[in-house]
Amino acid sequence: MFGLFRKKIPEARPSTGGRLVYAVGDVHGRLDLLGPLLRDIAEDALASQPAERPLLVMLGDYVDRGPDSKGVVDLLLEMKGYGRLETRTLKGNHEEALLRFLHDPMFGATWLDNGGGPALASYGVQPPASRTDPEAWAEASAAFNAALPPAHREFFERLELMTTVGDYAFVHAGVRPGVAIEDQAERDLLWIRQEFLQAPGPFGKVVVHGHTPAEEAQMLKHRLGVDTGAYATGVLTAVRLEGEDQRLIQQRARRPHAA
Ligand SMILES: [Mn+2]
User: CB count, 10 Å around CB of 254?
Assistant: First the structure.
């Protein structure tokens, strides 16, 4: 009868189930930002004294555009050997491009258009002067295959598409609305933009993602977007999730562009 005065039942907030989780957005060769951010995360993880080993999820797009793709992968391999955190590395569309160039030399021109030049250079390989010379591209691809350390090749080949913790799903780009989380296609997980970003949700899980940069992290009800365009802005963002708590940890360069 007095329904207007009925108390609203509080909605359940998404939870990791208790585990401490960090998710880091698109790095794009900015080792200068990733190093300090991972130090802050490791310190925070130690200070938090969690019951369970904390999880670090890297959301993909480690390579291209920025100056030190190789150094970023070296650091991520080091993190995987660091016992106090479990580190999981997701595949981004830029890692897909790098992998394709290993066996499809003529894809190199497209890769270069998307920032692959600095990634190649970080491995000591110079891109061909001509965009269309098949021999030059075959040579560059062969040189890249030879320059890529076996541990890096294995790193790129074993990247994951998604990981879930409690009410959260971690992916590079997003999910296709209306498709169950477990039925998502790789192409959508790596590439989707507006169809996901403009969808109101829910998506089955709260989706933590990178891929589409925004000036500020997007802490929405059904998705957390943490790509702050580190390559161009000098701001690399991580979200720290613990139980129902959500916080940001950021690393800011003194100058936006890497030296
Ligand atoms: Mn991306």
Answer: 6
Q: How far is the CA of 157 from the centre of ligand 1 (A)?
A: 17
Instruction: Give tens-digit pLDDT for 94-144.
Output: 999 999 999 999 999 999 999 999 999 999 999 998 889 999 999 999 999
* Distance between Cα 93 and ligand 1 center (Å): 5
Report the C-alpha gap between 16 and 80 in whole angstroms. Answer: 21
Cα 94 to averaged position of ligand 1 atoms, centre (Å): 6
Residue 7 has pLDDT above 80, yes or no: no
Domains of the chain: 18-174+203-252 (3.60.21.10)
Upper half-sphere CA count for residue 27 (Cβ side, 13 Å): 34
Ligand 1 geometric centre to CA of 14 (Å): 25
Total-model pTM = 0.94
